Amino acid sequence: MQLSGKRVLVTGASQGIGAEAAFRFAAHGAHVDLVARSAELLDLQVKRITEFGGSAKAHVADLADAAQIRTLAEAVDTPDVLVNNAGVGRWLFLDECTQDDLTTMTAVPFMAAMLLTREFLGAMRSRGSGWIVTVNSPVSRLPIPGAVGYQSARWALRGLTASLRLDLRGTGVGVSEVVPGKVSSEYFANNPGAEERIPAIARLIPTVTPERVAVAIVDAVRKERAEHLFPWQLKAFELSGRLLPGLTSYLTWKTGTRR
User: Fold this and answer.
1) What CATH code is carried by the domain that includes residue 206?
2) 47: enclosing H helix or E strand
3) Does 41 fall in a domain?
4) What is the spatial distance between Cα 132 and Cα 176, in angstroms, rounded to a whole number?
5) What keywords are annotated for this sequence in UniProt (predicted)?
6) Positive or negative, the Cα torsion across 209, 210, 216, 222?
7) Residue 148 in contact with residue 93, Cβ under 8 Å?
8) Which of the residues are catalytic?
């Protein structure tokens, strides 16, 4: 897809992966709608884009709230590209989670992506064009101990992406899933204790930057790529999980968090 002149909506765009993806889409000539909860951080990103010469607009919305998703959809034109990047969640054992924890982790990223995509899907299908990107976590491929709510939502997001890809085949609307390894974003600072729960074996996968993930997201749209897992060590672990599931599961458990 050629991005110049296209409209791109990016969720979770106030910082990290979303902010970098928005900037890179704008650098390719797209108008970008940035969505997040923080007006102040969104304004900083819009300023960064416009000072560079790009076109961007901020939209404050809490995507855990279905009513706010509906209001957002009414406020923006149907995008040519929708990037479902927003995500929250703590790495906890199930009995460590409150009901609110589990509700929140289900609401974003999974329900947010499903409801927001639904809002635009009819218009995309009628138009016969569009692209939907899901930014997912490596735990959607390789389960780890001690993060049951978070990774359940990520597996659900994977299922949503795969289902959409089949449903939209032949319609002119494409679907990409971008799955990076550990990202040097604000997630681990905002969720103390999560980093310590990464299994030792998974620490063999190099950390990637938000800028690197943004490149992958934009490339997935430009090249109309269905799936992109990176770096190569993550792809190797994913392949190992399919070919040697018992061994991979054992090593993840053995080197992971236990009680």
Assistant:
1) 3.40.50.720
2) helix 39-52
3) yes
4) 6
5) Oxidoreductase
6) negative
7) yes
8) 150
Residue 90, burial from CB neighbour count under 10 angstroms (0-12, 13-18, 19+): middle
The span from the CA of 25 to the CA of 39, in Å, is 20
User: Per the domain annotation, does 234 fall within a domain?
Assistant: yes
Asked whether 222 and 6 are in contact (CB, 8 A), the reply is: no
In a domain, 185, yes or no: yes
Question: 47 is in which domain, residue-wise?
Answer: 7-254
d(CA 9, CA 77): 10
Tens digit of pLDDT for each residue in 191-212? 777 888 899 998 899 999 999 9
Domain contains 2: no
* C-alpha closest to that of 85 among 124, 49, 115, 113: 113
Beta bridge partners of 134: 84, 177
Which positions of the chain have pLDDT values less than 70?
none
- The alpha carbon of residue 154 and the mean position of all alpha carbons in its chain are separated, in whole angstroms, by 9
Q: Tell me the pLDDT tens digit for each residue of 66-107.
A: 999 999 999 999 999 999 999 988 899 999 999 999 999 999
Tokens of 30: 């797209």
Domain count along the chain: 1
Long-range pairs, 202-207, Cβ under 8 A, ≥24: 202/138, 202/142, 202/144, 202/237, 202/252, 202/255, 204/233, 205/138, 205/181, 205/231, 205/233, 205/234, 205/237, 206/181, 206/231, 206/233, 207/181, 207/182, 207/183
Token code pair at residue 200: 């030792």
**Pairing status of strand 227-230 against strand 173-180:** parallel
Q: Are 108 and 88 in contact (CB under 8 A)?
A: yes
pLDDT of residue 93: 94
